[in-house]
Specification:
Distance between the termini of chain A: 34 Å
Structural class of chain A: alpha+beta
Largest sheet of chain A: 7 strands, antiparallel
Mean pLDDT of chain A: 94
Protein name (chains A, B): FAD-binding protein
Strand content of chain A: 15-25%
Number of domains of chain A: 4
Oligomer: homodimer
Organism (chains A, B): Pseudarthrobacter humi
InterPro entries (chains A, B): FAD-bd_oxidored_4_C, FAD-bd_PCMH, FAD-bd_PCMH-like_sf, FAD-bd_PCMH_sub2, FAD-linked_Oxase-like_C, FAD-linked_OxidoTrans_Type4, Oxid_FAD_bind_N, Vanillyl_alc_oxidase_C-sub2
Keywords (chains A, B): FAD, Flavoprotein, Oxidoreductase
Strand order of the largest sheet of chain A: 15-12-14-13-17-18-16
Helix content of chain A: 25-40%
CATH architecture of the largest domain in chain A: 2-Layer Sandwich
Shape of chain A: globular
Largest interface: A-B, 93 and 93 residues
Cofactor (chains A, B): FAD
Chain lengths: 456, 456
């Protein structure tokens, strides 16, 4: 046998294999903090299922790790390269193979961009519901690998709820099809669900049949400003008690408002210390919006009667609040979820521990799901590393995770464990549960070549 | 060691173990056709998680099969006793342990009746969405074991979509907790999803945290009568094209209407040869109902403007159409699902093959999901078995399954494989997919004591 790279070129052609230094470095990481930088041996750009099978077979034969990757927008390091690995990009497999308006399904290759699928579906009055903040750049394959969430999950579900069937290349290079093309189907064990969220550690998703939902014909957006964050969090429960299910219910704290003002020249901060941003949709959107406005006003909010255009712009600002700054050792974004009734308590706990540890904090939350994204950061003091500040940042971070778990929460609502959150997984899941998962991994990938060191 | 029964009594007390002949016979089967009747060695009625653990540990030590059972309302034989087994009833573990209105969750023991959970939730304006036709008698544990569907799945999802976390006793008697108490959570592999629908073959569910949804504040019911069944099936697609998501969309054929008339003295048959029964719900229910009425009328339906009371009574009749007759060798109910666009074709195929094979047919369908329940039957000729008629019945049944698969469907939309549908599973799932499932089974239950011969 020749070198790994020669073998790869022989298997799928030179146009699909790169060892270009700058490209290797770019494909070595996703958008998560980097714990253990590793340059891949090569990046391959699969153009077909057969390409994926050929690469996996070759890597299996050579005992080389394969790190599958969509757009690399993950924030937990699920696509970080591991030692001596091949990074397998699925970006070029980006065709929508079928869009069936009457079936309300689509069959896509893994590299299809979330927004592109939505655009194609919209032509038929349909939508693909899961909408992570990265929807303009992230791929369906990546969304499946992380069981991605987004803004409209509380009403429309997470990625798992929209995936009906998968084509998966296993660790030996064989191809299987799981699930069903129908909305319902209960034949055998739920292998589809097992692959969703498994971060490319059990197999590589090379195709997906997804369910589409109806584009709402009416959308109402409500902006409710509060004097403080805790009151805004209480507003979330008030909407729940009114038994209204919004499509979107986003909670932004003062720090987030100030940042949006800085970036976009808005004046949100002058209107309150916290913003609850709610969209109702569907045939009942107007009636639901009326109920929402009234319960929020009763809870101390200043509720907009502003034009839809402005309110919708606020949602766009929120949708795009991701990606403005990338996490690094001075700034870490979290992704905990807590039971909804604990939102108020958790927000209070976050504020307390930021004060205790002397770190800055801002919080946005998909509040309908109890899914919070606190960001802790410390200001850089020139180029020198401030060891004390770093220690305080990590203490705050660890304490925020522990507080979420104490309240019955989880360490990751939608971003996944990846590489970055492995250190906390043992706090959430006891050893017997982790051992079961290790044994499932071993069953699917006995040599451990699929994205080693991630997810479990 | 003493006998199995003595050991069981020693482990959990005599009040929890029965060997009474009539009871053994009753607990030997669920409501599916019986292929291989086996009387269990004993029936045990667990009162606690510890009881379940003790029974499983004992059975593991003695290498005795354990068939877990809820209310025994399954129709695929998932709870049929296997040779020399212990039937483990979870009926007595029927407490709702928590109902958290602000979290919109409940924590229940497995023996809680679906309708009882709904009644408790309704007091808070909430509901547990999955509503199998057996909801008045079936248990949450049984619903979880089969990933039960029901009438309102198209809008509200199946059991899997409402289960957040599970407590499971494994084959060695150990207890694990899977999932999360929050709506979202992506830590590790989806073990919860793996247990849901696994029919007690991977572990025994002894507790569940479920998500509740909002009781709709408004419900509109529409009855649309059609001159034939195929036109009614086309009406389902017309509602989809209008992008209205009904809560319930039930399709009943002429045979079903005639039966309902016989049983309830109604005059449905005189009003059409097929009935499409639709409920819209939520804040937009009235507006949605208007759209539905108009598209159905345009498609040739006679659409009711009748009082809500009568239309709702029709839904009740449909809800209760289960259980009037139990399947036996002369009457077999099916549970296929097809992509929605094939509903019309599939109904045509069913009618053709019933005529070809000279068997009677009636069909009801959860049409929003493409999930059909055809029933084929032959009239009994006295007490003698009519071998020719039986052969025709089986030919029709097999042909109906094959037709569904050819159209991209599944052999079971919501009832599960159990024991009865194992014979068709190989038509749907190729050997490598089945082999993966066998290996998962082996991983969880190496001795094969948990509900052997079911599900996969």
């Amino acid at each position: 046998m020749g070198s790994l790279v020669e073998e790869l070129v022989g298997a799928i052609g030179s146009g699909r294999v790169s060892t270009e230094e700058e490209l290797l470095a770019r494909y070595a990481v996703d958008q998560a903090p980097i714990m253990d930088f590793q340059l891949p041996e090569a990046v391959v750009f699969a153009g077909s299922v057969k390409d994926v099978q050929a690469v996996v077979r070759l890597c299996a034969a050579l005992n080389v790790a394969v790190v599958a990757r969509g757009a690399g927008t993950g924030v937990s390091g699920g696509a970080h390269a591991s030692r001596n690995c091949v990074v397998l990009s699925l970006e070029r497999m980006n065709r929508i193979l079928e869009l069936n308006p009457d079936d309300e399904t689509a069959v896509v290759e893994p590299g299809v961009i979330n927004a592109d699928l939505n655009e194609a579906a919209a032509a038929h009055g349909l939508m693909y519901a899961p909408d992570p903040a990265s929807f303009r750049s992230s791929t369906i394959g990546g969304n499946v690998a992380t069981n991605a969430g987004g803004l409209r999950c509380a009403k429309y579900g997470v990625t798992r709820d929209s995936v009906l069937a998968l084509d998966v290349v296993l660790a030996d290079g064989s191809l299987i099809h799981t699930g069903h093309q129908t909305f319902k189907g209960v034949a055998g064990y739920d292998l589809t669900g097992l692959f969703v969220g498994s971060e490319g550690t059990l197999g590589i998703v090379v195709g997906a049949t997804v369910r589409l939902k109806y584009l709402p014909r009416d959308v109402h957006t409500i902006a409710a400003f509060y004097p403080d964050f805790r009151q805004a969090a209480a507003g979330v429960l008030a909407v729940g008690r009114a038994r209204v299910q919004p499509a979107i219910m986003e909670l932004l704290d003062g720090g987030t408002l100030a940042q949006l003002d800085d970036l976009h020249g808005s004046d949100l901060s002058s209107r309150g210390r916290s913003l609850l941003l709610i969209q109702t949709d569907g045939f009942g959107a107007a009636a639901e919006a009326d109920v929402v406005r009234s319960v929020l006003a009763a809870g101390g909010a200043t509720v907009s009667t502003e034009s839809t255009a402005e309110a919708e712009q606020l949602v766009e600002l929120r949708r795009n609040s991701r990606g403005v700054e990338v996490d690094d050792e001075y700034r870490v974004g979290e992704d905990v979820a807590v039971p909804r009734s604990r939102l108020v308590d958790y927000v209070a706990a976050l504020e307390d521990l930021a004060a205790t540890h002397g770190v800055s904090l801002k919080v946005v939350a998909h509040a309908g799901d109890g899914n919070l994204h606190p960001t802790f950061w410390i200001d850089r003091q020139g180029s020198a590393v401030d060891a004390d500040a770093m220690a305080r940042l990590n203490l705050a971070l660890d304490a925020s995770i522990e507080a979420a778990l104490e309240m019955g929460g989880t360490i990751t609502g939608e971003h996944g464990i990846g590489q970055y959150k492995l250190r906390w997984l043992g706090l959430e899941q006891p050893e017997p549960v982790r051992e079961l998962q290790r044994r499932i991994k071993e069953l699917f990938d006995p040599a451990g070549i699929l994205n080693p060191g991630k997810a479990i």
